[in-house]
Amino acid sequence: MQIFRAHVLVCGGTGCTSSNSPKIAEEFEVQLKKNNLENEVKVVKTGCFGLCAEGPVIVVYPEGAMYTMVKVEDVKEIVEEHLLKGRLVKRLLAGNDEFDYNFFKKQMRVALRNCGRINPESIEEYIAFDGYQALAKVLTEMTPEQVIDTIKRSGLRGRGGAGFPTGLKWEFARKSQDDQKYVCCNADEGDPGAFMDRSILEGDPHSVLEAMAIAGYAIGANQGYIYIRAEYPIAVNRLRIAIDQAKEYGLLGKNIFGTGFDFDIEIRLGAGAFVCGEETALMTSIEGKRGEPRPRPPFPAVKGLWQKPTILNNVETYANIPVIILKGPEWFASIGTERSKGTKVFAVGGKINNTGLVEIPMGTTLREIVYDIGGGIPNGKKFKAAQTGGPSGGCIPASLIDTPIDYDSLAQVGSMMGSGGLIIMDEDTCMVDIAKFFLEFTVEESCGKCPPCRIGTKRMLEILERITGGKGEEGDIEKLEILAKNIKAAALCGLGQTAPNPVLSTLRYFRDEYIAHVRDKKCPAGVCKSMMHYVINADLCKSCGICARNCPVGAIKGERKVPYEIDQEKCIKCGACMEKCPFKAIFKNA
Amino acid sequence: MKSIAELEAIRNKAREQVSLRSEEDQYRIVVGMATCGIAAGARPVMNAFLEELKKRNINNVSVTMTGCIGVCRLEPIAEVISADGKKVTYVKLTPEKARRIVAEHIVNGRVCVDYTIGATESAK
Question: What is the dihedral of CA A93, A96, A98, A101, to 10 degrees?
Answer without folding.
Answer: 30
